[in-house]
TrEMBL record:
<protein>
    <recommendedName>
        <fullName>VWFA domain-containing protein</fullName>
    </recommendedName>
</protein>
<keyword id="KW-0732">Signal</keyword>
<dbReference type="InterPro" id="IPR036465">
    <property type="entry name" value="vWFA_dom_sf"/>
</dbReference>
<feature type="signal peptide">
    <location>
        <begin position="1"/>
        <end position="24"/>
    </location>
</feature>
Length: 553
């Protein structure tokens, strides 16, 4: 990491990105709220609602709304026009630590491993992210601005809106056609290869850059239930029923019919869930997803005893030919050959008692009955080619037992107190309201928790040692004392130093995993007699030397 200097008047402050952090700013929503664009001033009501006042005049409600939409990717719940424009945003989803939340996705960057491009390099549970629009590309360029570029999963028709271009150095890289070539987005400014920030380009498989990977975010309880207003407006039949965890969920029938892609004895059940992807973490529901038999019966009554396809399929290993068929007698035993398929295509057992009596009743037919249909009386087996409706719900069978409510959502350094109905820092003394009341006194309890976190990972630190005309001799010694304090308090780090003046140069190469070399450097620097320092510097060159040292480590 690089130490930067910020000159304010005649004083110099050294900013070092260490392990200390404001936990409330660790998630994407809080960052957009507490550090808004256009010089706005943001306030978190809780970790899911933010009010930002911008020193920007808007003449009417429409102008204020348009501006608020452009200022944040989160759902706009209200806006107010006037000399200052006020925007209130809420988020409907939550991600884990280390993930960035955008729309209904949790995003991570996966560094390349030296291999050629592959869309299979994302960790388990993630996939190479497919952008849904130009606005999303803009927000990704802001959120991940520390990266130069990233591979994305768009291709073919779903890449047209990006208008990807040939890489400026395409011919040098042997890129003569764009067919089948992966696409990347330039994220950082100042590229020397002719690419522009926020634009999409076709790359070659040998280009080394991180992969933008995503998974679906976890919806808040309110996000699930807000769907009812939309369904009423669109005339979509639905019912709100407790799921197997006791959380109220919306179950809806969109009125569309679906067959199942299949080979002779194997159904591709994974793809059936796509029918419900319009919903937050949407999936095809089945009998197993209800709290009890009564709730299941209520649901089937609501939809007038319709029969629904479910993601249950028969094992492809059971492949008896039709000419060898006899009247089915072993239906209880044959239920063992059936599994539930989740959205990833993984197989799981399901309760055999949910079958209709005497089913599955035909394990070998001219059209193999390798899929299941859900009736009020139980499952029956049917061929894959039959077009039937599906019952969609939200959250997925894997959702957490405890519902995630916006008012009870706290950052990772805090917990919700049901008695006070407020967040509380895990260590109360770290609350920003107590630590720095002038800055954080207007925030609710438990929103800003100031704490230090020690990482077990080894770190490389580069100091940019300022010898410019803005720093007098006293300032230089302050820098040296700061460097000693850093070295003294950070274990498992190796350090280097670059002098910033009119001739930037490396004065301390990266050492081993100890701090003695840095102490020696500081002691030697303290013994120097400083004359009039340079009045001008080449800071860009100094930063370049620092980055090069970090890149080779």
């Amino acid at each position: 990491m690089i130490v930067r200097k910020v000159v304010i008047g005649s004083s110099c402050k050294l900013l070092l990105l260490l392990f200390a952090h404001i936990n409330a700013e660790s998630d994407t929503f809080s960052k957009f709220c507490l550090m808004p664009s256009y010089c706005g001033s943001g306030t978190l009501e809780n970790t899911a609602k933010c009010t930002v006042v911008y020193p920007r005049e808007s003449k009417d409600a429409g102008e204020a709304e348009d501006f608020c939409h452009s200022a944040s990717p989160y759902t706009l719940t209200s806006s107010k026009y006037g000399k200052n424009t006020t925007c209130v945003h809420e988020r409907g989803y939550v991600c884990e630590d280390g993930e960035q939340e955008l729309y209904d996705n949790c995003l991570i960057m996966v560094e390349p491993r030296g291999d050629k491009f592959s869309n299979k390099l994302c960790p388990e549970g993630y996939q190479l992210h497919v952008l849904g629009g130009r606005d999303e590309a803009k927000w990704i360029a802001i959120i991940f601005r520390q990266y130069k570029a990233t591979w994305i999963g768009n291709s073919g028709d779903n890449a047209r809106f990006l208008k990807p271009k040939l890489h400026p150095n395409a011919k040098k890289r042997g890129l003569e056609t764009t067919k089948g070539k992966p696409i990347f987005i330039r994220l950082a400014q100042g590229a020397r290869d002719g690419t522009k920030r926020g634009c999409a380009y076709y790359g070659t498989e040998d280009m080394q850059m991180p992969y933008l990977c995503s998974r679906k975010a976890e919806p808040y309880e309110e996000t699930h239930l807000n769907l009812t207003e939309i369904f009423v407006e669109l005339g979509i039949p639905f019912i709100v029923i407790p799921n197997k965890n006791g959380n109220e969920r919306v179950y809806a029938n969109f009125g569309l019919l679906f067959a199942v892609e299949a080979e002779q004895f194997e159904a591709k059940m994974k793809n059936l869930h796509i029918a419900c992807y319009l919903l937050p973490k949407g999936f095809v529901a089945s009998h197993d997803d209800f709290l009890n038999a009564n709730e299941f019966t209520r649901t089937m009554d609501k939809f007038k005893d319709l029969s629904f396809r479910v993601s249950k399929g028969r094992s492809a290993a059971f492949s008896m030919k039709a000419e060898k068929c006899e009247k089915e007698k072993l239906f209880m035993s044959n239920r063992k050959h059936w599994s539930y398929y989740d959205k990833k295509g993984d197989r799981f057992e399901f309760k055999p008692e949910h079958w209709k009596n005497t089913y599955p009743d035909n394990m070998c037919a001219d059209l193999p009955r390798i899929t299941a249909l859900m009736l009020k009386t139980g499952y029956i087996d049917i061929p894959a080619m039959g077009r039937r409706p599906v019952l969609c719900s939200t959250g997925g069978p894997e959702e957490p037992n405890r519902p995630l409510r916006k008012g009870e959502s706290c950052n990772r350094a805090a917990k919700y107190n049901p008695k006070t109905k407020q967040c509380e820092c895990n260590f109360p003394e770290t609350d920003g309201r107590l630590q720095n009341p002038k800055v954080y006194g207007n925030y609710p309890p438990g929103i800003i928790c100031l704490s230090c976190k020690e990482s077990k990972e080894k770190k490389s630190i580069v100091f940019v040692f300022d010898r410019s005309g803005t720093i007098n001799v006293t300032g230089v010694h302050q820098e040296l004392r700061f460097m000693k304090e850093v070295a003294k308090n950070i274990k498992g780090s190796r350090t280097g130093a670059v002098v910033q003046d009119n001739n930037p140069r490396v004065t301390l190469n990266m050492g081993q995993w100890d701090t003695q070399a840095l102490f020696n450097f500081v002691q030697e620097a303290e013994r120097e007699r400083y004359e009039v320092l340079s009045a001008w510097t080449v800071i860009g060159r100094a930063m370049f030397l620092g980055r090069k040292m970090l890149e080779v480590q």
